[in-house]
Amino acid sequence: MSQTAVPFLPFVRPEIDEDTIQGVAEVLRSGWITTGPQNQRFEAALSEYFGGRPVRTFNSGTCTLEIGLRIAGVGPGDEVITTPASWVSTSNVILETGATPVFVDIDPLTRNIDLELVERAITPRTKAIIPVYLAGLPVDMDRLYAIAHAHKLRVIEDAAQALGSTWRGKRIGAIGDLVSFSFHANKNLTSIEGGALVLNDEDEATLAQKYRLQGITRTGFDGMDCDVLGGKFNLTDVAARVGLGQLPHLARFTDTRRALARAYFAAFDGGAAVKRGIGLPVADFEHGNWHMFQITLPLDALSITRGEFMARMKEHGIGTGVHYPAIHLFSLYRALGFREGMFPHAERYGASTVTLPLFTQMTEHDVARVVDATNQICEQYGK
Question: Helices (DSSP H) in the chain: which residue ranges?
């Protein structure tokens, strides 16, 4: 039966305050709307947040990964180890550099890359590792960097979803090698579109800046040179002003998300969905920022498909998402020789995961509504 009389609850909605909206209007009126003083302020604020490390902003969290790979010297003939449980950009950027993506399976508990398998996958051609912090949960950073240092590998952290996450009390981005963040509209901090790369020193920051804008270096009023092949990846001042408005709220955003995640666990406890085998994420409230709350459906215990489950949730006025299908089963990667059965944990996760609503304007009543709908559907369509 349709439940469309209730307000629709999307799976994500950004929170942008009136001061930020007014600030964007001021930028638009200023006449300087592309990369300029607001971007400089945003980079400085991010650098302070990350303990003084150099930061450069970009127009997406995809190009930050690719530029991180290029700064690490990755190119044709190299291998980069990563996970198939991510948005496809994580491995697409490896192909963009001419290198070869080497997938390893995930840990079924954390849903992150299995570091034990990472070490086994290292060959003489391995140049770097791209771990992905799914839903904002970092991997074991101590183990990750022990492996990297032992084999002299660079690490480009795909921390797209992990702004506000920590490892042993230290902010993700304040530690590590090259760290890539996304500020897409669905992230915990948004600049509408955008991203940032945290770097190790000013030489890397200068190189990142070159890659960001066609490889150009300027001197004086009319001096110009191009010594690397760059692209057009700069962040506008309009976007930077949105990011600047978001950053002071990040701690509150993270606290709210953690509270909502706790409410999800409490609401699911003992319900029909759990009894039928629904999978909940690992309950880590020390490190993760709870960018998403993702369940896995017990499809063998239900008489409906995942798509049908999502359609039933929509009838209840609830939006859902899928994050993510296993990358290696996309046509582009099948053409490279990948097949079913190669990474079974990632495949099972990718086929059954559903992302439930989680954003800062939600209430615990909203959470209860989502869980009630999930329980009803699992009870109604249980085998």
Answer: 18-30, 37-49, 61-71, 89-96, 115-121, 141-150, 202-212, 237-246, 250-268, 272-275, 306-315, 331-334, 344-352, 364-380
Asked if omega into 324 is within 30° of 0 (cis), the reply is yes
Query: In this structure, are 272 and 361 located in the same domain?
Result: yes
**pTM higher than 0.70:** yes
**Residue 109 in domain:** yes
Q: 210, 226, 248 — which closes off a domain? A: 248
What pLDDT sits at residue 93? Answer: 98
Active-site option among 127, 152, 187, 232: 187
Q: Which of 186, 215, 248 is the last residue of a domain?
A: 248
Whether residue 217 sits in one domain with residue 136: yes
In degrees and rounded to multiples of 5, residue 142 shows phi and psi of -60, -45
Q: Are residues 75 and 202 in the same domain?
A: yes
**What DSSP string describes 38-86?**
HHHHHHHHHHHHTTT--EEEES-HHHHHHHHHHHTT--TT-EEEE-SSS
Question: What six digits make up the tokens of 362?
Answer: 């939600």
Instruction: Tell me which residue range forms the domain holding 165.
Output: 18-248
Distances (CA, A) of 162 to 38, 132, 137, 165, 255: 23, 9, 7, 5, 14
Q: What DSSP string runs through 220-271?
A: TTTEEEE-S---B-PPPHHHHHHHHHHGGGHHHHHHHHHHHHHHHHHHHTT-
Q: Are residues 53 and 194 in the same domain?
A: yes
For residue 3, is it within any domain? no
Q: Are 367 and 260 in contact (CB under 8 A)?
A: yes
Q: How many CB atoms lie within 10 A of CB 379?
A: 13
- Segment 148-195, tens digit of pLDDT: 999 999 999 999 999 999 999 999 999 999 999 999 999 999 999 999
Judge whether 187 counts as a catalytic residue: yes
Q: How, if at all, do strands 79-82 and 100-103 pair?
A: parallel
